[in-house]
């Protein structure tokens, strides 16, 4: 795939202003901001999914890689568990475990942390990471969409009380349809939790780079991240997917 995205990935308008440019592996990436909704996104699209991510091999799945998705994130996992639990318990009609789906679950760091409180499910685009995650959570499959995941499960997928995306949404090429599909898999009063790198600090760092800030200290990670979100753009995305924002 080698395409130039002329319209915003959220609002589909074509008004944008230049933010930055970066080259990686002889490929050029142009970063722009939508004038209408303010989403910061990449115009170029060379692959549907980062080849480096799905091409990860077993030797690269080392202790450091696993640590980044497990112990390194536990400080964030704990408050998420508490916050989601407070909302979900209000609407639970039975004593059964609520159901959790982690999208882009990696090596199941979050699922391992949450499994005592949730019946856990998950999928990831990386064959190597999803196989590793299945050791912790048998309901993990290798998939890139909810539809692929349901087919790979080979049993009826439940509705979920909580769906989580930890550092996933910034990788998604078509965020509106993707989030709409996830919203349809939530049960009544279900929650969608999204964690993303913030747009504002990235733009500030980019401007500092233009003023002479050392280049090796900053990257848009353009071969992986195709969009950067703000509270405004996250709110708009959720609204377009039929979701109410409870907290940012």
Structural description of this entry:
The chain is an alpha/beta fold and 248 residues long. It folds into two domains: 1-46 and 198-226, no CATH class; 54-195, Vaccinia Virus protein VP39 (Rossmann fold, 3-Layer(aba) Sandwich), CATH 3.40.50. The chain has helices at residues 51-54, 63-69, 74-91, 109-114, 127-134, 146-153, 175-183, 199-210, 231-240, and strands spanning 3-4, 16-24, 27-34, 40-42, 44-45, 99-103, 119-124, 140-142, 160-166, 186-195, 227-228. Strand 6, helix 4 (109-114) and strand 7 form a beta-alpha-beta unit. The longest helix is centred in the first third of the chain and has 18 residues, at 74-91. The chain is globular. The protein starts with a strand and ends in an 8-residue tail after the last helix.
List the helices and strands and how they pair.
Elements: E1 3-4, E2 16-24, E3 27-34, E4 40-42, E5 44-45, H1 51-54, H2 63-69, H3 74-91, E6 99-103, H4 109-114, E7 119-124, H5 127-134, E8 140-142, H6 146-153, E9 160-166, H7 175-183, E10 186-195, H8 199-210, E11 227-228, H9 231-240
Parallel strand pairs: 6-7, 6-9, 7-8, 9-10
Antiparallel strand pairs: 1-5, 2-3, 3-4, 4-11
């Amino acid at each position: 795939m080698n395409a130039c995205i002329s319209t915003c990935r959220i609002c589909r308008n074509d008004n944008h202003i230049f933010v930055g440019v970066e080259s990686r592996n002889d490929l050029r990436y142009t970063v722009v901001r939508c004038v209408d909704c303010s989403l910061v996104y990449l115009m170029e699209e060379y692959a549907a999914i980062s080849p480096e991510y799905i091409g990860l091999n077993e030797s690269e799945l080392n202790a450091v890689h696993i640590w980044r998705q497990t112990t390194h994130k536990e400080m964030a996992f704990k408050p998420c568990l508490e916050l989601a639990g407070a909302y979900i318990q209000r609407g639970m009609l039975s004593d059964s475990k609520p159901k959790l789906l982690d999208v882009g679950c990696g090596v199941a760091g979050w699922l391992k942390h949450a499994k005592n409180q949730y019946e856990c499910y998950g999928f990831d685009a990386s064959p190597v990471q999803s196989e590793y995650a299945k050791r912790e959570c048998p309901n993990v499959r290798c998939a890139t969409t909810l539809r692929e995941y349901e087919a790979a499960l080979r049993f009826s997928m439940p509705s979920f009380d909580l769906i989580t995306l930890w550092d996933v949404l910034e990788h998604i090429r078509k965020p509106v349809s993707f989030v709409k599909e996830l919203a349809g898999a939530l049960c009544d009063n279900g929650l969608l939790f999204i964690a993303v790198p913030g747009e504002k600090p990235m733009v500030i760092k980019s401007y500092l780079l233009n003023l002479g800030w050392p280049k090796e200290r900053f990257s848009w990670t353009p071969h992986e991240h195709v969009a950067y979100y703000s509270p405004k753009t996250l709110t708009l995305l959720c609204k377009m997917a039929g979701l109410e924002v409870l907290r940012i």
